[in-house]
Here is the input.
Amino acid sequence: MQIIDGKATAATIKAEIKAEVESMTANGAKRPHLAAILVGHDGGSLTYVKNKVLACEACGFKSTLIHLEDNTTEEELLQHVDRLNQDPDVDGFIVQLPLPSHISEQKVIEAIDYRKDVDGFHPVNVGRMAIGLPCFISATPKGIMELLRRYEVPTSGKKCVVLGRSNIVGRPMAQLMMQKEYGDSTVTVCHSHSANLREECQQADIIIAAIGRPGFVTADMVKPGATIIDVGTTRVPDVSRKQGFRLCGDVDFEHVSPLCTAITPVPGGVGPMTICMLMQNTLAAAKHTYYPG
Ligand code: GUN
Here is the structure.
């Protein structure tokens, strides 16, 4: 059984990005610039955004954090989005989700200039991804594809079960695994209302678990030799930890891992890759890789 080390892979990729940035700037280009808008004080979101700023430093990017109060109105937030859309120094930006319930996430996502949408959440990027056109691909599915590629996990013609159908992970993950240029797999998407979910998983060569239920994937659901990708990051209270919680994946790692060919741990698997792919998207935005400047 092989542990797929997302932390080490992410460190390698960040070093590759930094080297490219240093060579770009030495040739007179400006540093890539990522901005992030965070609304409110949710602990998880705060940590994610702080880690994104740290990753910018590691990659040699400029970063700007716009931290707004919980009671920010939708109109005020849309004004910030518009300012970043117009700012020629900002190559890409994200609005950290979830947003407070009085703000429409969809409205905000659609207000972002798709050419700066390094999260890949805008319908233009989602649509282009679905038909295989160049675009920003959302970071978690992109990071998983990169792990599968770098660890040479065979995907072509394999049976892949995606657990979860969220816009951020499950849906785009299924699209990429299905596409000829990416996974080229036979994909089944299972969700909270799927019948025979256990039997579907038992058939899978690859399971990608993104349902946010700690320990959901148990040993009896896994075919011996399968590859397991765990996207779960539920915070479970744990008084023995300094922060008062630990991160729990969607997979019962202890009992599933002995059965697998390869598996991602939580933490240290998919998580570090997500931020790293956001950096890759920001570099692509700065270079106008997908959309001409
Ligand atoms: N919340 C959870 N994951 C993400 C992400 O990838 N991007 C943004 N903007 N918000 C998130």
DSSP finds ten helices and eleven strands in the chain.
